[in-house]
Amino acid sequence: MQGLIYEVPRHVLRIQMRLFACRERLRVATDDEALHDLRIALRQLRSLLRPLSSVAVCETLQLRAAELGRLTGPLRDLEVLQSYLQQQGLDSAAQSRLPLLHQGYLQLLDSAPLAHLLDALDDWPQQWRQAASNGQLRGLHKLVRQGLRKDRKRLAQALLDPAHDRHRLRLLIKRLRYVVEAYPQLADLSGRMRMQLKQAQSALGDWHDHWQWLQRAETEVDLQPCVPVWRDAILSAEQQADLVLQALTASFARSSG
Known about the structure:
The chain is mostly helical. The protein folds into 2 domains: 1-138, Four Helix Bundle (Hemerythrin (Met), subunit A) (Up-down Bundle); 143-257. It has 9 helices and no strands. Helix 2 (34-49) packs antiparallel against helix 3 (56-87), helix 3 runs antiparallel to helix 4 and helix 6 packs antiparallel against helix 7 (166-182). The longest helix has 32 residues, at 56-87. It is flat.
């Protein structure tokens, strides 16, 4: 227990520093990966806190991180699409989305969710130390292990559902994989299964991107030329995802048998 009491705040501090750096990179527009890296840091924070969400001192910080996650998701989707269009030489469609993308960056920088999260991160270390001194942080290892078991059980059950929803599977896989990354020493998951989670997330992410783009093409007419290619690509992604999911299902069955 004492290990996590000291380890968690150190990890939170590292993430806080990355969030500050990403904010400044967005502000000065130094590279195209600032938003992506911000979302990675945000994901790491949420994954670290989620098994501890029943601990009062973690609740507000977790809520603030979730708010920022919801805000940045659509902006990242637009960023990925704009980059794809640029790479495919569809300059007109790519350029037409740049003003909306840049406006989104500015709105993010001035947003309440970003300010609230950074303020909460400033206040959190003292709150954590106070909770520790009051004896409110007992049983952290148990909480994390329970959270990991629940996430693993939810995913295993979803994989066995013949009518599984790829959207839900993608979220469950991301959730388990990222919590395992946050607490590798407490995760009873083989290296093979961790690799399969990564492969499944990648395949489902490819499928999800094309699904989203096809949805957008229904109302954004300049995307129509891409539709035949995207329809072929989403079928290929579905097939690849199904193969990886079958292997992951088999690994879960062996590990629980």
